[in-house]
From TrEMBL, chain A:
Superkingdom as given in the UniProt entry: Bacteria
E.C. number(s) listed in UniProt: 1.18.1.2
Residues that hold FAD according to the record: 33, 41, 46, 86, 121, 286, 327
InterPro entries linked to this entry: FAD/NAD-bd_sf, FAD/NAD-binding_dom, Fd--NADP_Rdtase_type_2, Ferredoxin-NADP_redctase_2
FAD/NAD(P)-binding domain span: 5-291
Lineage, broadest ranks: Bacteria, Pseudomonadati, Bacteroidota, Cytophagia, Cytophagales
Gene source species: Pontibacter populi
Protein name (record): Ferredoxin--NADP reductase
Automatic annotation (TrEMBL), chain B:
Protein name, as recorded: 2Fe-2S iron-sulfur cluster binding domain-containing protein
Similarity section: Belongs to the adrenodoxin/putidaredoxin family.
InterPro entries linked to this entry: 2Fe-2S_ferredoxin-like_sf, 2Fe-2S_ferredoxin-type, Adrenodoxin-like, Beta-grasp_dom_sf
Domain called 2Fe-2S ferredoxin-type: residue spans: 5-107
Cofactor (UniProt): [2Fe-2S] cluster
Domain of life: Bacteria
Record key words, sorted: 2Fe-2S, Iron, Iron-sulfur, Metal-binding
Amino acid sequence: MLTTDICIVGAGPVGLFAVFEAGLLKMRCHVIDALPIVGGQLSEIYPKKPIYDIPGFPEVLAGDLVKNLEKQIEPFHPTFTLGERVEHLHKQDDGSFIVETSEGTKVACKVVVIAGGLGSFEPRKPAIENLETFEGKGVNYMVRDPETFRSKKVVIAGGGDSALDWAIFLAGVAEDLTLVHRGTSFRGAPESAQKVLSMAEEGQIKLLLKSNVTDVHGNGKLNAVTVLVDNATPYNIEVDYFIPLFGLVPKLGPIDAWGLELDKSAIVVNTVDYSTNIPGVYAIGDINTYPGKLKLILCGFHEAALMAQSAYNIVYPDKKFVLKYTTVNGIQEL
Amino acid sequence: MEELIKIIVETQDGERVELEAPTDMGLSVMEVMKANELNVPAICGGMAICATCHVEVLESGELPEMNDDEAYMLETLPHATATSRLSCQLRISPEMDGLVVRLKPEA
């Protein structure tokens, strides 16, 4: 088990800056993120977009801001668990915590800081009745191991890049591959779209345009889906697997069940120190809410600083907090 | 000069709410709905990447053209219809007076 002072959930800009503020106060941090990279949405969604409201930077690319934050926290040697989603929070008798991830990684810590931003990104599910009953029994929202689909009958729904890419790939693996797309054209990467169209002409992919999957059938396990093609009479296709690929949507995820006070999927905090209703657990950045909340990176940075001075009292209960200026004291490596 | 237009929103409960929106503040329909405390998560804040501000346009004059990001998102969205838009991409303009939209379930 990993042991640290503060476990930070979320490696976005605010989570990274929290490492800095904690480091100034000699508190070690471990950072966990569901994405395989640091930076959160700045890295995942808009790395090449400029940000204009970071104090002191008239303009900075989101990706560059993340790089600078990584450099800024280097002296404090944070440790990371990336590509794993935080699932459980176990409170210990002595007031400390064990945070557990989807892959079973455990982190023992005195303080938990949730800097989860939009939440974790999860597959968007189409509105099909009974779809959930077949999850894991023929309905998959992502392709983990392509071999699962070898020599099987597969229907993919969606028109984005991931639907195109997997249709192309799985056409060579599955016995039979149907791609169901609501539109008449594809806006994804033009090469992939062209490839899908030519594979459809050659009969390697069955392509159904202006189509939707409207129903799923089976007995314990999926065996057919109903498709509606261009508003004609719906018909059934025999399948082993149905893979809806409609992109990702941010969800609060398992944090929802931790007993935190929530307001519209945001964590309610006390603005004195951004503490939550669970002592020792703080929430900073876009994931929290309070009267006057603004979802701005700069506000998250401020919240990180106030959180750190409060967390200090938990990590070092016998020491008195003294504000030290970096200009006077420099950065003391941890 | 400030000008107010009216926007009518049919909420998830089927109720119709009339909103007033200023045309000179660069607001989007999503932002106006949020300011009026309608149930619009708009988690991404207006970057056309989460589709949690998805609306179906029921009545309108001329609307701004879709950019690629919005079109791509709508094309991949399972419950989108022919008149679907992302309300975060609809910047309020005088031509929008009388717009009627329906908030979609996911929003």
